[in-house]
Amino acid sequence: MSKYGVVVMGPAGAGKSTFCSALITNLRNNRRSCFYVNLDPAAEDFTHEPDLDIKDLISLEDVMEEMGLGPNGGLIYCFEFLLENLDFLSDALDPLSDEYLIVIDMPGQIELYTHIPILPALVKHLTRTGALDIRLCAAYLLEATFVIDSAKFFAGTLSAMSAMIMLEVPHINIMSKMDLVKGQVGKRQMKRFLDADASILEEEEAEEDDGSTNPGDTQTLMKGKSFNRLNKAVAGLIDSFGMVSYLRLDVQDEDSVAAILSYIDDAIQFHEAQEPKEPIEEMEMGDEDLP
Ligand SMILES: Nc1nc2c(ncn2[C@@H]2O[C@H](COP(=O)(O)OP(=O)(O)OP(=O)(O)O)[C@@H](O)[C@H]2O)c(=O)[nH]1
Predict the structure, then answer these.
(1) What is the pTM of this model?
(2) Which CDD domains did the record assign (predicted)?
(3) Probe ligand 1: pick from 17, 55, 176, 247, max atoms within 8 Å of CB?
(4) Residue ranges per domain, the chain?
(5) Is the CB of 189 under 6 A from ligand 1?
(6) 102-124 burial by CB neighbour count: b if 16+ within 10 A, else e?
(7) For 139-171, what is each residue's pLDDT tens digit?
(8) I want to staple 21 with a disulfide (CB 3.0 to 4.6 A). Which of 41, 47, 133, 215 is the partner?
(9) Minimum CA distance residue for ligand 1 atom 30
């Protein structure tokens, strides 16, 4: 048995910090030990004070001021600095006993999860056998009201998929802010997206062909017949990964938070049962892993 943790990711404003807070409340109410790590160097207000805060190592405000960087460049700089100072994490996480769930709140800039190797290097450090050896699960949040049309749904799902491929840890998708999906039409619409398949695009192409529309959901991924094959290929790709299932989250509803927590527990245990442990020598981080 080892320590385990969840990395909470997703675009800006998706509800990551609110979800972390709901998760911590649930864990504490059930007398489970948790350790809250804030890795957003710009985050200010917290419902639960972080046990470890990247701002104690480096703050985005200072970096922007002193290095003359903008918010995105500044964020990358903060993470590069964190990677050069991994003892900041190790010193705090290493002494924790095995029953702790470590909740890691990430910033909303999705480039961190999609195309630069910073987060994979960080995850490697956290999970490395013989070092911190934390069993990690990734939770990727997308906001329900944002993904209620298929263009945004597929764009969001592709970014979630990209994070999954980059990190190589058990991954769950979460549709957040479900309380904002109102009315029968909205709920019916959302049901199609919670467990979607490529046929969503086909249905919409048929609707466009016969001129009919679906309230609040009239876009295909890319409009126009010439894009039909590309739309289908993208949808088929997502389908083949089995990635288009979302857990629903309404932070006001404790049952939805508890259900997600049990998925996190299961994902980590399943992964632990499946994955042979990698020896520490093979996981040594080389220069090529660093950004
Ligand atoms: N109605 C509703 N609002 C929510 C929910 N979760 C978050 N919010 C609101 O959405 C806004 C953004 O929430 P955060 O938790 O700060 O989102 P975040 O993903 O951490 O944001 P960044 O750190 O800026 O990327 C806040 O105003 C929250 O109160 C939810 O489940 N329902």
Answers:
(1) 0.84
(2) GPN3
(3) 17
(4) 4-193+243-274
(5) no
(6) bbbbbbbbbebbbebebbbbbbb
(7) 999 998 876 677 788 788 888 888 888 888 999
(8) 47
(9) 177
